[in-house]
Amino acid sequence: MPITGLCISCEPSKLPLFPYGAAGSNNKSPKFRDPKSNKRFEIPNPKLDPQHSKTVQLQQGLESCSNIDELRQYHSQIIRLGLSEDNDAMGRVIKFCAISRNGDLSYALKVFDKMPHPDTFIYNTIFRGYVQFQLAKECIDLYLQMLQSCVSPNKFSFPPVIRACTFDNAIHEGKQVHAQILKFGYSSDGFSQNNLIYMYVSFKSLDEARKVFDKMPHPDVVSWTTLISGYSQLGYIDDARKVFDLMPEKNPATCNAMIAAYVQSNHFHEAFMLFDEMRSNHIKLDKFVAASMLSACTGLGALKQGEWIHDNIKKSGIEIDPKLATTIIDMYCKCGSLEKAFETFNGLPSKGVSSWNSMIGGFAMHGKGEAAIDLFKKMENESVPPDYITFVNLLSACAHSGLVKEGQYYFLYMVKVHGISPGMEHYGCMVDLLGRAGMLDEAMKLIKDMPMNPDVGVMGALLGACKIHGNIELGEKIGKKVIELEPHNSGRYILLANIYAAAAKWEEVANVRKLMNDRGVKKAPGFSLIEMGGSVNEFIAGGRDHPESKDIYAKVNQMLESIKFIGYKPDSDSLLQEITEEEMENPLFYHSEKLAIAFGLLKAKPGEILRITKNLRVCKDCHEASKLISKFFRQEIIVRDRSRFHHFKEGVCSCNDYW
Fold first, then answer.
1. Which residues of the chain have pLDDT under 70?
2. CB atoms < 10 A from the CB of 359, how many?
3. pLDDT digits 0-9 by tens, 589-626
4. What would you report as the CA-atom Rg of the chain, rounded to the nearest whole angstrom?
5. Closest CA to 255 of 234, 275, 276
6. How far is Cα 53 from Cα 68, in angstroms, rounded to an integer?
7. Nearest 5°: CA angle at 365, between 646 and 357?
8. Which of 143, 151, 468, 624 is the most buried (most CB within 10 A)?
């Protein structure tokens, strides 16, 4: 309440120390004497002012408001007190409605529209509300209205408006906002500058992002990580590393940005090298770095490294939230330790849907369809509602295990019971399920009945089934269509060529090869990874770069000669062209997984399981050889190929030759 009648020449020392009453006072309104007129006057004590008391109570109530109904009651009292045009009071109402979890943006906008002179704070609050609800255009339009109303923005105005430009891909408007940040004198505000870097990265304008970054006097952790992530997201991994190396001081956040960049671009070895560097510099492990490194372990099939990171997560007291729990389970599943994955899953105090999905998916890729179905039933019994991904994993489990009736049942069940409409992935699983079972007519009918055009994944599943069951006519038709849908995927050409080769149509095989050459499509080289002694070794088909290649090749020859005594014969169907038997044996003998198995046999301790990760589908010859090697050498072998796991033990594979 304004103080009226007090001369500005009054000396501060003559004013009472507690003008509104304090301890020992009687809370009466203090009296003063005007030195010029010698008249006495009173300053009203807010503690004795009923309206002031109500206003304070309203302010406190608005701060603790919990729902919109309660807010409406406070709003009505504000109106009764005559404060409906007061920016401070109404700003609190708008703040709750616009950005609170229990607010109502439409209510905030109605209040805002009736404000005669909203201030910068109120505009900023509406900006935040618009951005929170992804209403980018409305936010940008309101910013223009703010400028037209001669209300000056402050440093809190720009970040939400920049985000709105980012969401709406409003490049022109974003550059204008950038210019106004400079015009209004906020060029040194780190929050605005970081948002500008993010905006330019989202526009794929890395040069502009770098200019903003380079002009920052003191870039912070957000600045560095945003720029590093921007380079990596657009595939400039080397540039991301150069920025990272420029940092005067590293921390877990920036290390994670660089490690994540390596992982996302499948540069797993580089991720491990940086992680080792991070540890040597005593940079603390946090849950984000841990999650990225677990993903790197997944990519390389590095189980021992993954176990070490999991142990350190527990020792460091890092909270295992649902996202991290899912990453751990996924790592164990994809590194071949289903037992550890299930142990981790069962040990979670609370399981989110992503954890259930990850475990069901783990059973699927290991060919344990019945276990996946049992876990799904348990999920329902514990009242965890399944989602879209749950049924993708469940149907995949049925496909890998040949559970045709069960797959058909759950395909209908997801719609009737849970109201989830089948998507492309669900149809792909069903086509794969029917195709593998030899039900090609049913698979074709399902494709024709799809409510959307089948993508290359669905058609590719049918093409694979044609190869398995030797349907040349349908395979040729589907193969040509798949190649046109995905002209740069070498695997599609090779699958069609294999279908022709199986029918001895060598001219067509040659035509497919010529088409690949004309289009510049290169066959993806097969490689396999095996972790031994805490390090990951990589083998390329026919490669001799490994320092122990001489011993490895000798072991391959000895290994394959040994299993010939128990029935091994090289499978000529695994090759594409007609060549002599002698030429045919050499490439098959030196496929990457055979080199990895040989290395494993040289290095494995008694009872140690060989765990191998392969980037391509295991060929028929290597599959048969692996079964016999497991029997002859009494060695358990687990191979993860492009689509599933194969557990070889005592001459039998867990897939039951159904892959």
1. 1-64, 572-588
2. 29
3. 788 999 999 999 999 988 899 999 998 888 888 899 99
4. 34
5. 275
6. 23
7. 160
8. 143
pLDDT (0 to 100) of residue 37: 53
Burial state string for 140-154 with b = 16 or more CB within 10 A and e = fewer than 16: bebbeebeeeebebe
Question: Residue 157 corresponds to which tokens in the numbers above?
Answer: 């105005």
Amino acid in position 142: L
Beta bridge partners of 42: 31
Residue type, 258: M
Q: Backbone phi, then psi, for 187, in 5-degree steps?
A: -70, -20
pLDDT of 38 reads 54
Q: At what angle do helices 322-334 and 353-365 cross, to 10 degrees?
A: 0
At residue 573, the pLDDT reads: 56
The pLDDT of residue 22 is 36
Q: Kindly state the DSSP code that residue 573 receives in the 8-state scheme.
A: G
Q: Residue 616: CA atoms inside 13 Å, Cβ hemisphere, count?
A: 22
Distance of CA 375 to the CA centre of its chain: 24
Question: How crowded is residue 579: how many other Cβ atoms within 10 Å of its Cβ?
Answer: 12
Strands 610-614 and 637-640 come out as parallel
DSSP 519-566: TTPPPPPPEEEEEETTEEEEEETT---STTHHHHHHHHHHHHHHHHTT
Nearest CA-CA partner of 554 in 595, 499, 525, 586: 595
Q: Is 257 exposed, middle or buried (0-12, 13-18, 19+ CB in 10 A)?
A: buried
The DSSP annotation for 571-603 comes to -GGGSSS---HHHHHHHHHT-HHHHHHHHHHHH
Quick one: pLDDT at residue 598? Answer: 95
Q: Which class for 559: exposed (0-12), middle (13-18), buried (19 or more C-beta within 10 A)?
A: buried
C-beta of residue 638 within 8 angstroms of C-beta of residue 655: no
CA atoms within 13 A on the CB side of 464: 22
Alpha carbon dihedral 164, 170, 173, 179, in 10-degree steps, equals 80
Token pair for residue 447? 């494709």
Asked if 163 contacts 130 with a C-beta cutoff of 8 angstroms, the reply is: no
> Is there a contact between 475 and 493 (Cβ–Cβ < 8 Å)?
no
Transcribe 358-388 into DSSP letters. HHHHHHHHTT-HHHHHHHHHHHHHTT----H
Could you read off the pLDDT of 46-73 as tens digits, one per residue?
444 555 556 666 666 666 677 888 878 8
Q: Give the Cα separation of 528 and 598 in Å (integer).
A: 12
Q: What is the pLDDT of residue 93?
A: 85
The size of the chain, in residues, is 659
Residue 551 CB coordination number (10 Å): 13
Question: What percentage of the chain's residues is helix, strand, coil (to nearest 5)?
Answer: 60, 5, 35
Which residue reads 């490439």 in tokens? 587
Q: Side chain identity at 383, as an amino acid letter?
A: S
Q: Please, are residues 366 and 397 in contact by the beta-carbon 8 Å criterion? A: no
Query: Dmax of the chain from CA atoms?
Result: 123
Q: Scanning the structure block, which residue is given the tokens 């030759």?
A: 657
Identify the bridge partners of residue 528 per DSSP, sorted by sequence position: 539, 614
Strands 645-649 and 610-614: unpaired
The whole-number pLDDT of residue 449 equals: 92
Closest to 192 in 3D by CA, of 214, 162, 166: 162
